[in-house]
Design a protein that fits this description.
Helices cover 64% and strands 8% of the residues.
Length: 766
């Protein structure tokens, strides 16, 4: 390392050229970052549930439905003004590039017999409708069970226009399409009606917009906050600016590399920039603060830089490695965005270490002393002395309290852990993306309005398969089974507002063949009739509800967004019901977006356990090399686990759920909190090894590292608290919880760690 430092100092111009050349491609990719939020990103490509869902979409079409809903101002949609609005919006939707299908009152068709065949005609006739024809038309439409509650409310006052998007991974194109749809729909509606927009595509695009907004807000505010803190600490604007340049370079490298590898930001990874800035500043502060002191007593400027590098490279390497390990533990997650954040944040931490140990020394040499400590306030400055004295007196009082009351601290620790463990057991999981939106968000309020006034907006799908051709879905018994399942589920599950299946379709055709007599709205008894109906059916409809070989059929339900607890109750009911009702000739599979969100919860739980255990084991091993003895390592880890348990306890007691962001709090906390523990244990062992008695060694350790430990913790606290300015609830919760966990970690290091050492008296000196 000494040779490397000599190279950095002697060849600083070449080092700077190398940094600039490496930064050029990183800078280019830094400007190319993208945002993408979709259910797919939360699963590994090999996940069997995702693969099944993808195959389902290939067979039956994309189920991403947008909803445009409005309530007629005069209490009925069956008048010329409203029907004109529906026709206009539907026609423009059909012409929109990216829209696959449109479902509305003016596009819906019904079966009519015509001799020995069936034709499908529009429920709402094309062309001009006589004013006297609207009441009979309303009566006819509201008797059609297929459109009631799916396209029009039972009272005829509310209507929905549904549109299905073509599958696409181009998020920007999807956003532009939905904005275009919103624009021409509002123009078509004018002041006649107030439109409400909902559906999974709108939620997804809204998450992208909010994620981008958060990224653009977090980064500059974090930069500004760090500049203020560093300038206050180092009392030198030039050094604070140098720190900012170092952080900017770190950010460009980390995010540039992230984009270069083809990754996109989402509601989880959007916090990466702010996290890296808050963490990376620690190395910058250490090197600049040490440089100021070294430059004050070294005659040669280069010697001061060399001494600084020799002093800080090892502790900064250890703290960077432990922090990176905390992030790398996310690689065990089954939630892909969490895994991606862990990988690239960990790499970013190591980028920060590498850049800090090269860029800052090179810049200090190039500045030739203009940023050194000699031009700062002299050591005898009265204000500086008073400030230092007050800080040291406060640290002395802390150490005296711990030394005198360590048994009290130990008992308090046990009580706090008992309370917080009880709270942690109450934690719930949340994977409902709509709930992540702010309560006053327009898309969320529109969804709530639609679900209160009309129907659910999230699809739930069940596929029923016949085990043999004898019982395929040309068999009346098979269709009756589908009909029974559909009817029973609609009765039992209040969150399901509408449904559609093959049995609905053939009931309609059978009724049409029997002169529209409602008594014949039933499953045909004759298998030959069903086969004939397949031949007469509209291929656009039939291909979306049954497989070509007639061995599998789809039951579709529209569900309201709800809590995970409710979704699990319904899922358990469905599984229990289907296991009894399905019979020996059939099997079934649950899929669809609502099912995928529920699968995410299982992945979250698995990720929580894996990431915490992985980070704990890896950091324990690293701490053993720092502590030198097993029991001192155990005690140090207790102090580092303390903030995690307290934070989880608070989540449980205050009803803050574990979601795609808050699940990372524990691993992030232990990865960062251990940094200060390393500094404290290192100095404590150094003093104990020099012959100091344990109380004196603890007191001196407070004075040696207490100030940087407190300041670093405060920087991290405010850095993470910036995330509460985010627009997405999980980001806000992650920021708040991680910020307070930094304070709990500070308590663990300054009070709990010394108290445990005094109680158990492990071997300290190496």
């Amino acid at each position: 390392m000494n040779k490397l430092f000599d190279v950095i100092i002697r060849k600083y111009k070449y080092i700077m050229v190398a940094i600039v050349l490496l930064s050029l491609p990183m800078g280019y990719y830094f400007t190319q970052y993208k945002f993408f939020n979709h259910i797919d990103i939360f699963f590994d490509a090999s996940d069997p549930n995702l693969q099944f869902y993808k195959n389902f979409q290939k067979r039956y079409g994309n189920e991403e439905l947008g909803v445009i809903l409005f309530k007629a101002p005069d209490g009925t949609v069956f008048n010329e003004r409203v029907i004109t609005v529906i026709r206009s919006i539907s026609a423009q939707l059909k012409e929109a590039d990216g829209v696959q299908r449109v479902f509305s009152l003016t596009e819906a068709k019904e079966a009519q017999a015509e001799g020995n065949t069936i034709r499908f005609v529009n429920i709402i006739p094309k062309g001009e409708i006589a004013p006297t024809a609207y009441d009979p038309l309303k009566h006819k439409v509201l008797k059609n069970p297929v459109v009631v509650n799916s396209l029009v409310s039972k009272d005829g006052a509310t209507t929905a226009i549904l549109f299905e998007l073509k599958p696409t991974s181009d998020n920007e194109k999807k956003r532009e399409l939905l904005q275009r749809i919103m624009a021409f729909s509002l123009k078509a509606a004018g002041d006649a009606v107030r439109l409400h927009f909902a559906g999974v595509p709108y939620v997804e695009v809204e998450m992208n917009i909010l994620s981008k907004r958060d990224f653009l807000v977090f980064t500059p505010i974090t930069f500004f906050l760090i500049f203020i803190v560093v300038a206050f600490m180092l009392k030198r604007i030039s050094l604070a600016l140098l720190c900012q340049m170092n952080l900017l370079l770190t950010l460009v490298w980390a995010i540039g590399f992230f984009s270069m590898m083809g990754e996109s930001f989402n509601m989880v990874t959007v916090i990466m920039g702010a996290i890296l800035l808050a963490i990376a500043v620690a190395d910058s502060i250490h090197i600049l603060a040490h440089y100021r002191e070294a430059d004050a007593y070294h005659d040669n400027h280069d010697d001061a830089i060399r001494h600084t590098l020799k002093s800080i490279w090892m502790p900064c390497l250890l703290t960077s490695l432990t922090t990176a390990v905390g992030f790398f533990s996310f690689l065990t997650s089954t939630i892909r965005p969490v895994k991606v954040l862990g990988l690239y944040a960990g790499i970013g931490v190591m980028f920060a270490y590498l850049i800090t140990l090269t860029f800052i020394p090179v810049m200090l040499i190039m500045l030739k002393g203009s940023a050194n400590g000699r031009s700062a306030a002299p050591a005898a400055d009265p204000f500086a002395v008073r400030e230092s004295s007050r800080f040291m007196k406060a640290l002395d009082r802390m150490s005296d309290f711990t030394l005198a009351r360590y048994r009290f601290v130990f008992v308090g620790l046990i009580i706090i852990l008992a309370l917080t463990v009880a709270g942690a057991l109450r934690i719930k999981f949340e994977t409902n993306t709509m709930n992540y939106l702010p309560d006053d968000n327009r898309i969320k309020t529109d969804i709530n309005f639609i679900e209160e006034q009309f129907a659910g907006t999230i699809p739930f799908v069940m596929l029923v398969q016949a085990k043999s051709p004898e019982y395929d879905f040309t068999h009346p018994e098979s269709l009756r089974l589908v009909d029974t399942i559909q009817r029973d589920m609609m009765k039992a599950i209040t969150h399901y507002s509408t449904s559609f299946s093959l049995s609905d379709y053939f009931k309609e055709i059978h009724q049409a063949f029997n002169d529209g007599d409602e008594r014949f709205r039933a499953i045909p008894d004759n298998r030959r009739d069903i086969v004939d109906y397949y031949e007469l059916a509209d291929s656009e409809v039939i291909d979306r509800i049954v497989s070509p070989d007639r061995m599998e059929t789809r039951l579709s339900f529209q569900s309201k967004w709800g809590s995970n607890e409710t979704a699990k109750e319904y899922h358990n009911y469905i599984v229990g019901y289907m296991d009894k009702a399905i019979g020996e000739h059939y099997t079934y599979k649950i899929t669809g977006l609502s099912s995928m969100y529920l699968n995410m919860e299982f992945n979250l739980k698995e990720s929580q356990i894996k990431s915490i255990l992985t980070s704990f084991v890896l950091i324990f091993v690293m701490m053993y090399f720092v502590c030198g003895t097993f029991w001192l390592t155990v005690i140090s880890m207790v102090a580092n686990v303390f903030p995690i348990v307290v934070t989880l306890g608070i989540m449980g007691w205050f009803g803050i759920p574990l979601d795609v962001s808050t699940i990372m709090v524990a691993s992030v906390t232990i990865g960062i909190a251990v940094d200060d523990t390393i500094h404290i244990v290192t100095w404590l062992r150094r003093h104990a090894g020099s012959g100091e008695k344990l109380p004196d060694a603890i007191r001196k350790t407070y004075r040696d590292v207490g100030k940087p430990v407190i300041i670093t913790s405060l920087v991290l606290f405010f850095g993470f608290m910036i995330l509460i300015l985010g627009s997405i609830k999980p980001t806000q919760a992650f920021g708040m919880l991680t910020a307070f966990s930094m304070l709990f970690a500070l308590i663990g290091d300054l009070f709990i760690l010394p108290a445990l050492i005094l109680v158990f008296k492990p071997k300290i000196a190496g």
